[in-house]
Amino acid sequence: MTRSGRRGAALAALAVLGLPACKRPAAPPAPAPAAPQAAAPAAPSPPAPAELEPPEPLAPRDPADTVTIKLLADARREAHVFWGRKDLGAAPLDLKRPRGSGPVDLLVVAPGSLPLHTRVFTDRDESLSLRLYSAKEATALVGWKPADAESEAQAKTDAKTEVKTDAKTDVKTGPNRVLKTRTATAPPRHRF
């Protein structure tokens, strides 16, 4: 017998043996229909709109349902607290919000100080002491660098990078970059 003949015979034997295992058990017989019951009473129709009572007016909020957030800052700094575009006033101040109304993102701005972004939560009464830093004091903070340092660092990396130009392709290359310059004869591309 050839290989394909043996393989075919084996598959046929497996198919014959596997068929009884694959059969579904017979479905249980359907229950006999029950005797008809008395008709169920119809559901009452909804009342006409004129019969409905007007809703009760909402009760005023209990004072315990508000939280007070105290923002403390040096009054000499004249720090203004902003919530989005809204100026809440100069710190120190008390902010009253409904309890559980969600977080409030605040921006505190004072002359001669860096802006302070903070978030307060309305779950409970809180006091938040605002510490404002000048640019000189901020150098002691971890991870802070002045805006001028970023531009100076960029200028140093640009000076270290030598730019080589290939005359044939007019491509400027340097470490970690490939710049293609536009020739005077090429029209500008517009994307709409």
Quickly list its features.
192 residues; alpha+beta; Immunoglobulin-like; four-stranded antiparallel β-sheet; three-stranded mixed β-sheet; 10 strands
Provide a compact summary of the structure.
20% of the residues lie in helices and 25% in strands.
Q: What does this molecule look like?
A:
This protein is of the alpha+beta class and 192 residues long. The chain has a domain at 63-138: Immunoglobulin-like (Sandwich). The chain contains 3 helices and 10 strands, in the order αβββββββααβββ. The chain has helices at 3-22, 135-138, 147-160, and strands at 66-72, 80-83, 86-90, 93-98, 104-109, 116-120, 126-129, 164-166, 171-174, 177-180. A 4-stranded antiparallel sheet has the order 3-2-5-6, with no helix packed on it. Strand 2 (80-83) and strand 3 (86-90) form a beta hairpin. The chain starts with a helix and ends in a 12-residue tail after the last strand. The mean pLDDT is 74.
Question: Which fold name corresponds to the CATH topology of the domain at 63-138?
Answer: Immunoglobulin-like
**Order of strands side by side in the largest beta sheet?**
3-2-5-6
- Please report the total strand number as a whole number: 10
User: Mind telling me which CATH architecture of the domain at 63-138 this is?
Assistant: Sandwich
- What is the helix fraction of residues, given as a range? 10-25%
Secondary-structure element order, as H and E?
HEEEEEEEHHEEE
Counting DSSP H or I runs of 4 or more residues, the number of helices is 3
